[in-house]
Specification:
about 140 residues; alpha+beta; Arc Repressor Mutant, subunit A; Dna Ligase, domain 1; three-stranded antiparallel sheet; 6 strands; about 40% helix; globular; zinc; DNA-binding; Fur_C
């Protein structure tokens, strides 16, 4: 997802362009890593001293709802990143130290085969967590 596409989606859904939304989306566009609300707040407070977690979480919830951002939970905290624009189905390895992401083309649903007779799978999510080579080398 890029900023242009994100703003098209927001505009199509009746959302106005604001400085706060712009800064939040820019932070996500500038990294492939997952970010937390605290990561955003630490940066945004410089330009918006009165910025609150409520404002950040409200915007993050909107971005997730509109498929602009993806969300995962690590160590009990919600983490976000720009939605993948990949044309093929895939999953992710996520580094718990730095938040970097590596695409995985393997899908565990392929292994289920006929294990769910009579069931209709509507969606699934598969993420692998650990440490990337860069973080392993700093230990």
């Amino acid at each position: 997802m890029n900023l242009t596409r994100a703003w098209e989606i927001l505009k199509d859904n009746g959302y106005k362009k604001t400085d706060k939304r712009e800064l939040i989306l820019q932070m996500f566009e500038e990294t492939d890593k997952y970010l937390t609300a605290r990561d955003l707040l630490d940066v945004l407070k410089k330009d918006f001293p009165g910025m609150s977690f409520d404002t950040i979480y409200r915007n993050l919830a909107t971005f997730v709802e509109l498929d602009i951002l993806e969300e995962t939970e690590m160590q009990g905290e919600r983490n976000f990143r720009m939605h993948c624009e990949s044309e093929h189905h895939h999953h992710h390895f996520i580094c718990r130290e730095c938040g970097s992401v590596k695409e995985l083309s393997l899908c565990p649903m392929d292994l289920l085969g006929g294990s769910l007779p009579g069931f209709e799978v509507e969606a699934h999510k598969f993420e692998v967590y650990g440490k990337c080579p860069d973080c392993l080398n700093t230990i």
